[in-house]
Write a structure and sequence with these properties.
Elements: H1 4-7, E1 17-21, H2 26-35, E2 40-43, H3 51-63, E3 68-71, H4 78-85, E4 90-93, H5 99-108, H6 138-145, E5 147-152, H7 155-159, H8 161-164, E6 173-175, H9 177-183, H10 191-207, E7 211-215, H11 218-227, E8 231-236, H12 237-253
Parallel strand pairs: 1-2, 1-8, 2-3, 3-4, 4-5, 5-6, 6-7, 7-8
The structure holds 3-hydroxypyruvic acid (3PY) and magnesium ion.
C-alpha cells in the first residue's frame, strides 16, 4: 500500500499532487486515480461527507493505491479516530491557531506513550486484526506512516508558525491561502497574503517540515513545485465537474 508520507521527497523530482474530493462517489476516486493524481484528500470540513461515506471512499482509495487523507470537520477526537481506524493515511486539521492546540490534536492521532489515540487494531487500519500481510501493522503505521498535518490559515497562526511547527509528531503543514486572506481582509493574490504564505513556507523549510498549499490551477502548481513545496493540492471534484460542464454548455450556446 502507498502512503503519502513515503512519497514525499522520495519520488525523484516528482512532487506528489492531489485534489480535494467533496463528492461521495467511488467513481470519482477511480477517475482521480486514472487521471494520475498521487493522493486524494476527502474534505469533511466543507463537504457533506459522513464517516460512513468516508469509510467506503477510504477503502476504495486504498485498494487503488491512491493514499487517502481526510480534512476533518473539527478538532474533536471521535470522528478522527474512526477515520484513522477506517484506514485514512493522514489527517488535516483546519484552523490550527497555536502550538498548544496543535500538540493536543497531534496527540489525539498518536498512540501512547507519545499520544492518547485509542487502540482499534481490529479495524481496516489494522488489517481487521487478522492480516498476514507484514505491510499492515496498526501500531507501526499509526506511528510512522499516518500523516498528521495542521493547517495554518489565519494570520495569527502565521505569526506563531515557528511555535506550531516545533510540535513533535507533525508530518507536514498545509498553508490555506483562502482562509488566510479572509483573516487579513484581503484577496489571496494580494502581496500581503503572498508574503504571509511565503513566511510560513520559510518557517516550515527551516524546521524541515514538509509543506503544502493549494495551487490555483496547473501553472500555479508548477510554480509551487519549482519553488520547493513538498506536496501540492490542486482543484477539487466539484470545481472540475462544474467548469467542464459550463465550458461544454458555453461551447454549444456560443
Ligand atoms: C484555504 O485556502 O483556506 C484552504 O482551506 C484550502 O483548501
Ligand atoms: Mg481553509
Amino acid at each position: 500500500m502507498l502512503w503519502l508520507k513515503e512519497l514525499i521527497g522520495q519520488t525523484e523530482g516528482r512532487v506528489p499532487v492531489g485534489p480535494f474530493l467533496k463528492i461521495p462517489s467511488i467513481e470519482v476516486v477511480e477517475i482521480m486515480k486514472a487521471a494520475g493524481f498521487d493522493f486524494v484528500v476527502f474534505d469533511a470540513e466543507h463537504a457533506m461527507l459522513s464517516v460512513s461515506e468516508l469509510n467506503v471512499l477510504i477503502a476504495i482509495a486504498r485498494s487503488l493505491d491512491l493514499p487517502p487523507l481526510v480534512r476533518v470537520a473539527d478538532h474533536g477526537y471521535g470522528d478522527m479516530q474512526r477515520i484513522l481506524d477506517a484506514g485514512a493515511t493522514g489527517i488535516l486539521w483546519p484552523h490550527v491557531s497555536n502550538a498548544d492546540e496543535c500538540r493536543r490534536l497531534v496527540g489525539q492521532a498518536w498512540h501512547p506513550p507519545t499520544g492518547t489515540r485509542g487502540s482499534g487494531g481490529g479495524m481496516r487500519a489494522g488489517g481487521w486484526g487478522i492480516s498476514r500481510d507484514a505491510d499492515i501493522d496498526y501500531r507501526r503505521d499509526g506511528r510512522d506512516r499516518v500523516m498528521r498535518v495542521p493547517m495554518i490559515e489565519e494570520i495569527g497562526a502565521v505569526e506563531q508558525a515557528d511555535d506550531i511547527l516545533s510540535v513533535d509528531g507533525i508530518d507536514g503543514v498545509f498553508i490555506g491561502p483562502g482562509d488566510l486572506s479572509m483573516t487579513m481582509g484581503k484577496k489571496a493574490t494580494d502581496p500581503e497574503v503572498v508574503d504571509a504564505v511565503e513566511r510560513t513556507y520559510q518557517v516550515a523549510k527551516a524546521r524541515g517540515v514538509p509543506v503544502a498549499t493549494l495551487a490555483r490551477g496547473a501553472a500555479d502548481a508548477r510554480r509551487l513545485i519549482d519553488h520547493g513545496y513538498d506536496f501540492v493540492m490542486v482543484g477539487n471534484d466539484t470545481g472540475m465537474l462544474g467548469r467542464a460542464a459550463q465550458a461544454l454548455v458555453d461551447e454549444i450556446r456560443g
